[in-house]
Amino acid sequence: MRKLTTKFEMKPGYQGSRFSLIFLVLLTSITTLRSLAHVFLPDGGANSIAGLDVSVAGGSNLIAMFAQWGYTQLLLSVMMWGILIFARSLVPFALLVQTLDWGGRILVGQMKPIEVASPPPGEIGSYILLPLCLIALWSSLPKKP
């Protein structure tokens, strides 16, 4: 039977930096909390977090879309937790997925901007987390001897 690791130990198969491992744990924790907020907040976070007016016609559709987006984030979180607990050799892949996720948000946000009074935390976070994801991804790769 396999013993679950509680510390940030370097399991066999993962040869990257401890920074990348800890960063992925923190990022996965944030993603998990964000997903749960979008799924369970009454407005899906559309108004309370993103500042979108949900009292307009179609506002309930915005709320539903935010909740569905939250569920997708929850699936991503489950995959990341699975990698962290059971398959640490896939940490570079997990960080690649996170890099593409945060970078894609920036790209799509540029193509299809949302008009709000002030930028939501996720928009600001994308510009902070994308470079951090790139650094963590690079640091997670095995080093040649």
Q: What do you see in this structure?
A:
The chain crosses the membrane at residues 21-41, 47-67, 74-97, 124-141. Keywords: Membrane, Transmembrane, Transmembrane helix. The structure is a single chain. The chain is mostly helical and 145 residues long. It has one domain (18-140). The protein has four helices and no strands. Helix 1 (18-40) packs antiparallel against helix 2, helix 1 runs antiparallel to helix 4 and helix 3 runs antiparallel to helix 4 (121-140). It is elongated, with a radius of gyration of 17 Å. The model has no long low-confidence stretch (mean pLDDT 90).
What is the secondary structure topology, with strand pairs?
Blueprint: H1 18-40, H2 59-86, H3 91-111, H4 121-140
Helix pairs in contact: 1-2, 1-4, 3-4
Helices and strands, in order, run as HHHH
Overall radius of gyration:
17 Å
Helix content: 55-70%
Biggest sheet features: none
Mean pLDDT: 90
Low-confidence segments, ≥5 residues, pLDDT <50?
none
Give the helix/strand class: mainly alpha
Beta-strand fraction estimate: under 5%
> In total, how many beta strands?
0
Tally of individual helices: 4
Features:
145 residues, mainly alpha, 63% helix, transmembrane, transmembrane helix, membrane
Quick overview:
The chain crosses the membrane at residues 21-41, 47-67, 74-97, 124-141. With 145 residues, this protein is an all-alpha fold. It has helices at 18-40, 59-86, 91-111, 121-140.
